[in-house]
Design a protein that fits this description.
The chain has 639 residues and is α+β, with helices and mostly antiparallel strands. The chain is built from 18 helices and 38 strands. Helix 1 packs across helix 3 and helix 14 crosses helix 15. The structure holds sulfopyruvate and manganese (II) ion. The site of sulfopyruvate has 9 residues, from helix 8 and helix 9.
Length: 639
């Protein structure tokens, strides 16, 4: 039998600072590293009181009550719903304030890729010093919550235990909705737990929101597997297990041979009752949640997946068990399942939407008229209200979100908690691209897909990060913001991952944003059809046309799918416009991407240039024969 660890110096501090009940809960976990970590930040941040959650229903309920009692959340009209506001200048992920702490000699080379915003790093000791100077006594007057979670299903090879410290009951409540409880996992693992650590403080508040935005920092200590977040409340900056853990997991996965991807996981129904699992990476605000929530299909996750190879197959788990989804545009017609959940009782946090006099809520794109007044992230609001820069303030922030546990969704797949994950049939890359890529296309093979679709992904910027909107940004695998290893290494890992398999998943791209003369060429629901086509292709059940950039659907197959799935007549004319090959735009894209990999990405894998060059040549050949814009009808059918 293994000996229990002797309590370390931390236990003494904890005994002094914690109530008996909380102390016992914490010490029941036989892992002195956990005790030392909590003790260190209890001493350092100096909270007035401490609450240790064991993840029981009572503790979960208590945290939500405290979120309401503290004013960080307010009750709404529907039972269980609450509203949380983040500060006016704290509405999105802060790239500028986010830094990786790394030794001086390590340069990940990501700094040049941030599109004007730094994806920065800071020398580890200097960064630790700075963040600790901010953290010193920061929790005076606050209560500290000590929380245990598990990234991924419990009892699974995929999963990683985590400890979160936060002085925000809103953050604690959010995590209780978004992640699997991990107290039992820690109890079971004892000192074997290799856990991630998160320290968050919202800092001093004014009117309920973080006041010292100039001291907003998200510092990621890769080697220490610890992330520090201060003076911010917005979920993407504070919820440790979400985007902060992703950076730690990318590093750990890179060392161990598995992938952490910014991907949804969903099941798409095919003929004869078959269910094929697809994963999809999209930058924020590009339709990722709405794709994963597609009517008639099954959702496993909408944001982050771990991918591992088992028995020569790719398997995926959803790292999370809840959704922190974009609410803008959710309406009864296009999003019936989400709409229903949002209008039923249940534990749901709305953030940065408009709250009406009757405690109902409204957001951009909600059914019905824009209300005449309400309260939003800017305070009292009426239509036409302007901010300090004379910019009109919309009723809800574009990055306003909903937070719920996926148990509230009718379309949740029963395998959400499967410790083995699900087998991946295909992976999808999607971006916001107004002029180049067709609505859906399959790569020739894994490497072609990883390079021309994943590593070449671009997206026109949105409101999900602070900064300018509407410019084309390089967004490889929609994962650039979260890399903690060099991009070249990350791409190599991806290529290697698939090349170990005899039958790797198919790789697709989708583009819901292709335009002509300023008008979108595809309807919001068309993605339902693209998904069905990809499902068929994963199983060898549809032919395709071979173009220089990949395989595209046949008109006849789409016509049938539109009829079956959307009960609409899909015209040939529409098809020809949507699936036209746009050679000048493709060549320009290859030029942009090649320039980035040759000038801004140290040690780019040679295969990146080779595959892009081959694609360029294929495009030039076709251009000689057919001109700049080529009809799909000029391409040959393949199986
Ligand atoms: C995203 O922006 O990709 C999100 C929300 O999923 S956040 O938590 O802010 O990252
Ligand atoms: Mn995301």
């Amino acid at each position: 039998m293994e000996m229990a660890e002797t309590p370390g110096a931390g236990a003494k501090i904890l005994k002094e600072r914690l109530s008996k009940e909380n102390f016992e809960k914490l010490l029941a976990i036989e892992n002195t590293a956990v005790h030392e970590f909590v003790a260190k930040y209890v001493e350092f941040c100096d909270p007035d009181s401490i609450f240790v959650s064991d993840g029981s229903p009572e503790d979960i309920k208590h945290i939500k009550e405290e979120a309401i009692a503290s004013g960080e959340e307010k009750k709404l009209a529907i039972e269980g719903h609450t509203i949380h506001f983040d500060g006016y200048h704290d509405q999105a992920r802060d790239r500028k304030g986010t830094r990786l702490l790394l030794p001086k000699e390590v340069d990940l080379g990501l700094g040049a890729l941030g599109g004007g915003e730094s994806l920065g790093q800071i020398e580890r000791d200097e960064g630790l010093k700075e963040i600790h100077s901010i953290l010193k006594n920061i929790m005076k007057g606050h209560k500290l919550y000590v929380l245990f979670f598990c990234l991924g299903p419990t009892n699974s090879e995929f999963s990683i235990p985590c400890v979160q410290l936060t002085d925000s009951p809103y953050v604690a409540h959010s995590e209780n909705l978004l992640y699997r409880q991990g107290y039992a996992e820690f109890n079971k693992l004892g000192k074997a737990a290799r856990f991630f650590k998160f320290v968050h403080s919202e800092g001093e508040l004014a009117n309920g929101v973080s006041k010292n935005i100039d001291k907003r920092r998200i510092y990621v200590d890769i080697d220490g597997e610890t992330v520090y977040s201060t003076n911010t409340q917005y979920g993407g900056n504070t919820i440790g297990l979400k985007k902060l853990a992703m950076r730690l997991a990318i590093k750990r996965g890179s060392e161990e041979g598995w992938l952490t991807e910014h991907m949804f996981v969903m099941g798409v129904h095919g003929p004869k009752g078959k269910l094929t699992y697809l994963t999809g990476a999209f930058p924020s605000l590009c339709g990722k949640t709405s794709t994963s929530m597609m009517m008639g299909e099954k959702i496993i996750g909408d944001d982050i997946a771990y991918l591992r190879i088992q028995d020569s197959r790719v398997r995926a788990v959803n790292v999370e068990s809840g959704m922190f989804g974009i609410i803008q545009g959710v309406n009864s017609k296009d999003d019936p399942i989400l709409w229903k959940a949002l209008h039923s009782s249940g534990d749901i946090i709305f953030s940065n939407v408009l709250v009406l006099e009757n405690d109902g809520v409204y957001w951009i794109g909600h059914d019905g008229e824009v209300p005449a007044k309400g309260v939003n992230h800017s305070g009292n609001w009426t239509p036409g209200k302007k901010d300090a820069q004379s910019k009109e303030i919309p009723p809800s922030h574009k990055n306003a979100r909903l937070t719920l546990n996926m148990e509230l969704l009718e379309n949740l797949d029963q395998r959400i908690n499967d410790p083995e994950g699900v087998e991946v049939g295909g992976i999808i890359y999607g971006g916001r691209d107004s002029d180049t890529c067709v609505p859906v296309e399959e790569a020739f093979d894994w490497t072609h897909g990883i390079i021309t679709k994943g590593a070449s992904l671009e997206s026109e910027t949105t409101a999900a990060t602070l900064g300018k909107e509407g410019t084309r940004e390089f967004a490889p695998m929609a994962n650039l913001d979260f890399l903690s290893i060099p991009l070249s290494k990350y791409i190599e890992n991806n290529i290697k991952f698939g090349s170990q398999l005899s039958n790797p998943p198919k790789v697709f791209s989708v583009n819901y944003f292709i335009k002509e003369n300023g008008e979108y060429l595809t309807g919001k629901l068309y993605k339902a059809v693209w998904l069905k086509w990809m499902e068929l292709r994963c199983n060898g059940e549809a032919q395709a046309l071979k173009t220089p950039t990949g395989f595209i659907p046949l008109y006849d197959d789409l016509r049938k799918l539109f009829k079956n799935v959307l009960e609409t007549n899909y015209s040939k004319d529409e098809y020809l416009k949507q699936f036209k090959l746009r050679i000048p735009e493709h060549l320009a894209k290859i030029e942009r991407i090649t320039a980035i990999y040759s000038t801004k990405v140290p040690n780019s894998p040679k295969v990146v240039f080779k595959v892009l060059e081959e694609q360029r040549k294929r495009l030039e050949e076709v251009r000689k024969k057919h001109g700049d814009y080529v009809s799909p009808e000029d391409f040959e059918i393949v199986n």
